[in-house]
């Protein structure tokens, strides 16, 4: 800013003013009674169940910066369904100015389920490193095999620090959504878009992908496109033929996080304060648990119809110790 203003004498503020402003922005936006309401909620939940876990991160002046929490159900579910998770921070940040960051997995009904969540003051590598480390501690030090995120560089850096052996996949939908932005001005845009789609989804092997990619680059003479160069160098993070060696529970995007986020629609609005958010969060999760209970009841009391009369399948009890309820019956 000094350089842009051509000297300190042309600025109306000093370095201390600037640092104070940055510090203010990096704190959670709390309404009246917000921090107290969160603390009271966490204490109440921990009294009800000692397995409720929370961490409130504060600065040197004891001002709240970041919060992470996971109830007993989340922690128990993680033991059985925490092999793969998606992580997305865009929902409440975009809609309600709340940087809500949920970890989401898939349960035995194919439903999205919460594996812990946080409110962050900002989205830099330091904050994500704190969050991933806290999440790992909460889950007894057991790391999942893989995670799906968007292309956020800060997330990538933090994951490499906290989970060095982690398989980190980029959301394919978010990546392909950028094609109009990157090639919309090209006269052959529609043709490039279709060709790129074929290269990504129709490659049967890594060698196929590289061969088809090179032919596409040559055909449209787009050797100098920096975006294509960047995603090609990171192809092991998003191209289906490169990531299929890992079990992804049928996921290739962060849509699971968006599905989980949608549970808060109707409970959270633009005028929702942080104090109200904590209360509504609990109500939203109870609604989610009720839906899972209905599916459990259906598993107990319904028979899956065979596709053919000539096939004779038997379904056996599958016990899930985390919930004490079987998925199938004979």
SSE map:
Layout: H1 15-25, H2 34-48, E1 53-58, E2 64-70, H3 72-81, E3 84-87, H4 91-95, E4 100-106, E5 112-119, H5 125-138, E6 146-149, H6 153-162, E7 167-170, H7 172-176, H8 179-183, H9 189-202, H10 206-220, H11 226-233, H12 240-243, H13 255-262, H14 274-301, E8 319-320, E9 325-326
Parallel strand pairs: 3-6, 6-7
Antiparallel strand pairs: 1-2, 2-5, 3-4, 4-5, 8-9
Helix pairs in contact: 2-14, 5-6, 9-10
Please tell me about this protein's structure:
By secondary structure, the protein is an alpha+beta fold. It folds into 3 domains: 1-28, no CATH class; 31-171 and 245-300, no CATH class; 172-237. 46% of the residues lie in helices and 13% in strands. The protein contains 14 helices and 9 strands. It has helices spanning 15-25, 34-48, 72-81, 91-95, 125-138, 153-162, 172-176, 179-183, 189-202, 206-220, 226-233, 240-243, 255-262, 274-301, and strands at residues 53-58, 64-70, 84-87, 100-106, 112-119, 146-149, 167-170, 319-320, 325-326. The longest helix is centred in the C-terminal third of the chain and has 28 residues, at 274-301. The model is unreliable at 313-330 (pLDDT under 50).
């Amino acid at each position: 800013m000094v350089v842009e203003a051509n000297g300190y004498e042309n600025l109306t503020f000093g370095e201390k003013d600037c640092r104070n402003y940055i510090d203010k922005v990096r704190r959670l936006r709390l309404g009246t009674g917000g921090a107290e309401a969160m603390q009271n909620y966490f204490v109440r939940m921990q009294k009800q169940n000692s397995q409720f876990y929370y961490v409130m991160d504060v600065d040197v002046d004891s001002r709240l910066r970041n919060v992470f929490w996971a109830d007993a159900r989340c922690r128990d579910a993680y033991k059985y369904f925490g092999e793969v998770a998606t992580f997305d921070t865009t929902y409440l940040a975009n809609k309600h100015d709340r940087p809500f960051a949920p970890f989401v997995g898939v349960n035995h009904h194919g439903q999205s389920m919460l594996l812990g969540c946080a409110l962050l003051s900002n989205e830099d590598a330091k904050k994500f490193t704190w969050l991933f480390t806290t999440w790992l501690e909460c889950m007894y030090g057991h790391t999942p095999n893989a995670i799906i995120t968007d292309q956020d560089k800060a997330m990538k850096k933090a994951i490499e620090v906290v989970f060095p052996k982690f398989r980190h996949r980029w959301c394919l939908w978010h990546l392909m959504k950028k094609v109009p932005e990157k090639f919309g001005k090209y006269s052959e845009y529609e043709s490039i878009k279709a060709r790129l789609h074929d290269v990504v989804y129709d490659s049967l092997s890594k060698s196929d992908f590289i061969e088809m990619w090179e032919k596409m680059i040559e055909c449209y003479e787009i050797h100098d496109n920096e975006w294509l160069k960047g995603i090609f160098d990171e192809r092991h993070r998003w191209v289906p033929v490169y990531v299929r060696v890992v079990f992804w529970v049928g996921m290739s995007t962060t849509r699971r996080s968006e599905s989980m986020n949608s549970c808060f629609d109707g409970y959270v609005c633009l005028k929702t304060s942080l104090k109200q958010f904590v209360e509504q969060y609990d109500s939203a999760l109870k609604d989610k648990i009720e839906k899972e209970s209905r599916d459990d009841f259906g598993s107990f009391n319904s028979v899956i119809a065979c596709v053919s009369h000539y096939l004779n399948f038997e379904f056996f009890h599958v016990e899930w110790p985390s919930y004490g309820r079987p998925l199938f019956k004979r």
